[in-house]
Amino acid sequence: MKNKILKGACQASLLTLSLLSSAWATETPTLKEGKWRGEFKVNETRLPFNFEVKGKNLASTTLTLLNGSRRDDFKVTAIGGDSIFVKMNTYDAALVGKIDENGAFRGVYKSLVPNFRGNSLPFVAEHGKTYRFVEPEKNVRPVTNISGKWNVKIISKDPNAANSVAQLEQKGNKLTGVLMTVVGDTRELEGTIQGNEFQLSGFTGPSPVAIRGKINEDLKTISDGEISFGIYITQKFEAVKDKNAELPDPYKLTFLKEGYKKLDFTFPDLTGKSVSLSDNKYKGKVVIVEIIGTWCPNCTDQTRFLAPWYKANKQRGVEAIAIGFEQKDDLEYAKYTLGKLRDFFGIEYDILFGGIADKKVATEKLAALNRMAAFPTTIIIDRKGDVREIYTGYTGEVTGKYFKDYTKKFNKVLDELIAEPNPYESTSSIK
């Protein structure tokens, strides 16, 4: 009798545990509202990032990445019943993880590109922590203020390795800034300076970035510098403070080969229809050709600028075309990634698929160009079909004067070209 009672009790206990386990497994995971501090592990480097969560239920939850004054919002969803999934908007990557027994959010930042061999980055994030690198009470007095422009030399065996320019702003221990390259910029970075060492990081959706270095005794040079582009590459650098530091002229890096005045191409659009620059739709129009990739943060920043500009100016005799070179040479995949870009930014101009994301491939397919030096590249064509200007890369709002100079010249050139007469428009019909 006693054994039967014990057996019955055990069965009841197992049933209770089974029901509880089932309830826990099906409970929708959530992120607590408020500020969080996360850390990626990139090789042996810890790369911190900050974010804020708003929304009391999953249907309305938003995760906002914080980088200095920059804010980027992402939708939080659940997958598999117990995992949290944060898609990086137009980038085919996501934060995927679970809440552990201590309330921490643990997981990986991973590429969602089919068969992509890039590394996943493990991360752990804790709720309620707002500092980035160093807790305020542990700050060490900086040896100097490194605000200003720095000429950054990449240490490489490649003699053609391009230098960069850093713009930094320091207030006490807090450091913000941006690294500008011939490709574009790192977006806003946030970090700290402790004694003679500084660290910066940035995570806005695409692969995270980290920069660190040591200030030498002369207070005008930096040594032991390292730039990590997350799942991609790590570079060593040295730097010299230089208020006159500048990058190569972005209007002279890419140009037409000798004997060419025009650009022509034929690529499929997102329905599979072939589109050519020589189509009647573009005849007599000023045309902006934007060579991009959805994987490229500077490309999406440029799209954020161009999409509303085109919407406001399309009735003036101007057209635009985006040619996307994607991480997979597959039109069906490109329809998905470029379609996401179109929907996210409300793009109203044509979007074409150029092929795999490779500068050599893009150079071969756009044979009139000397080379594709960077994604994005902006090509402006006049009403006669002649190429009038080519701009390599893109400098976002965080670059200050560089962004203002770019937008000012862009508008000036477009205004002038739009004002030119349409050579294909008959004047005999004008009475």
Short description:
The chain has 431 residues and is α+β, with helices and mostly antiparallel strands. It has helices at 2-26, 297-313, 331-345, 359-365, 401-419; strands at residues 34-42, 45-54, 62-67, 70-79, 83-87, 93-99, 105-111, 121-127, 148-155, 164-171, 174-180, 189-194, 197-202, 209-215, 221-228, 234-241, 266-268, 274-276, 286-292, 318-326, 350-356, 377-381, 387-392.
Span of the ends, CA to CA:
112 Å
Number of helices: 5
Order of helices and strands: HEEEEEEEEEEEEEEEEEEEHEHEHEEH
- Give the quaternary arrangement of the chains: single chain
In words, what does this structure look like?
There is one protein chain. Strands 1-2-3-4-5-6-7-8 form an 8-stranded antiparallel β-barrel. Mean pLDDT is about 90; it is low at about 1-25. The chain is about 20% helix and about 35% strand. With about 425 residues, the protein is of the alpha+beta class. Helix 3 links the parallel strand 20 (about 320-325) and strand 21 (about 350-355). The chain folds into 3 domains: about 35-125, Lipocalin; about 135-240, Beta Barrel (Lipocalin), CATH 2.40.128; about 265-420, Glutaredoxin.
